[in-house]
Amino acid sequence: MALKVAIVGRPNVGKSTLFNRLAGKKLAIVGATPGVTRDRVTADANIGGLDLLLIDTAGYEHGPKESLQARMLRQTEMAVADADVCLFLIDAREGVLPGDEIVASALRKSGKPVILAANKSESSSALPGQFESYRLGFGEPIDLSAEHGIGMGEIVEALTPFAEAEGAGQLEDVEPDHPLRLAIVGRPNVGKSSLLNRLIGQERALTGPEAGITRDAVAAEWEWQGRKVLLHDTAGLRKKAHTGEKLEQLSVESTLNAIRFADCVIVVIDATQPFEKQDLVIGDMIEKEGRAILFAVNKWDHAIDKKRALADLKERLLRLLPQVAGAALIPLSALTGEGIGKLMPAVIEADRVWNTRVPTAALNRFLQEMVSRNPPPGVRGRAIRIRYMTQAKARPPSFVLFGNQLKALPESYLRYVSNALRETFDLPGTPLRLALRTSDNPYDKKRH
User: Fold this and answer.
1) Which domain covers residue 410, as residue numbers?
2) CATH number (domain holding residue 385)
3) Are residues 189 and 112 in the same domain?
4) Quick check: 172 pLDDT over 90?
5) Are residues 184 and 331 in the same domain?
6) What's the pLDDT at 50?
7) Angle CA 369–370–376, to nearest 5
8) Angle between helices 411-425 and 360-373 (to 10 degrees)
9) Given a cut of 70, is residue 70 above it in pLDDT?
10) How do beta strands 142-143 and 180-186 pair?
11) Exposed e or buried b per residue across 114-124, where buried means at least 16 C-beta atoms within 10 angstroms of its C-beta
12) 166, 191, 209 - which closes a domain
């Protein structure tokens, strides 16, 4: 028996796009105009071993009795009543709108289990909307991009307990929806393609002494100790002044896309010219995109005093890229194979840290100790109080601070919080996100 899943939400949040993605074919019409879907559309699907009956619905829109909107709403309500579980979709880029609140209220009244998903989460601009979605009352959202196929594995994981409870679509040896996505980036001619070839043991990417041989992102499926990996070799990222040629601009775009859709990124730097300005720009770009990061120091066979050189590199990384403090530095030679064996264990560890979730109780014990050691500064005679802390999501680890006047916290104090989080919960190298939620002052309301 298939698990019935109704995809619901206000108009134009991507319900039909997600329906088509899960169904594996274009069954529902999609468009930028709200209200394209009017009837219920159904499709059978098997995803990761789960048998599903998918139901695409019209957006929740109220209208006069017997109007088209009212009839569409009844269709949606019938789909919810018939479903085993509802997949509630919001647009993370737009955040929580009044229409989302209406849908949330209707779903609560239905009594049906609800899985919340924040669509269009493929870029960092969606982060505020992801945090906002907590106020809908359905817990942590799944971050996904229906258009790009991101987050499908997380949907399967979320649906599995309901399938087991209903005795429907039992899950057998479910594999993640995609392998570990690993991008190799860096300046031109630092040995990215040579590293890819060394890792997979074959000449998958063209190499040579000429800078800029690689134009497109070259993908290679691979397996390391039973873990499936999708490797992306990318064109070298040059300085902006050198990207005027149309083909060069396309190469840069290809590299940026590889970073955005990677889980972990290896930045290849040249041991003979380490941490040049462009290396720092690349590292900062990866941190802004929120990806796991580590550094492969290639051409290590050219280093003379290796112990001293490695110590110098670690000091420079900490000083020049404090936002990824503690990221792994792996000295190696793609040409000779020296140090290659240490690279993938470091990748797996970076991915583990990137996926870390910290229990709320542990976070609040940490918060009490941290604030007692170093209280936040006052603002115009009033103390800033951080009352509560929780982790909103992983990939990367993202935390929410609740309290009063938090927007007045200086950057130095937020860095103190981030550094303390890294040290206390063993989060080296990975990007961290802090969101601030300030409580309303009820006395201010009384005065108005």
Assistant:
1) 360-447
2) 3.30.300.20
3) no
4) no
5) yes
6) 81
7) 130
8) 130
9) no
10) unpaired
11) bbbbbbbbbee
12) 166
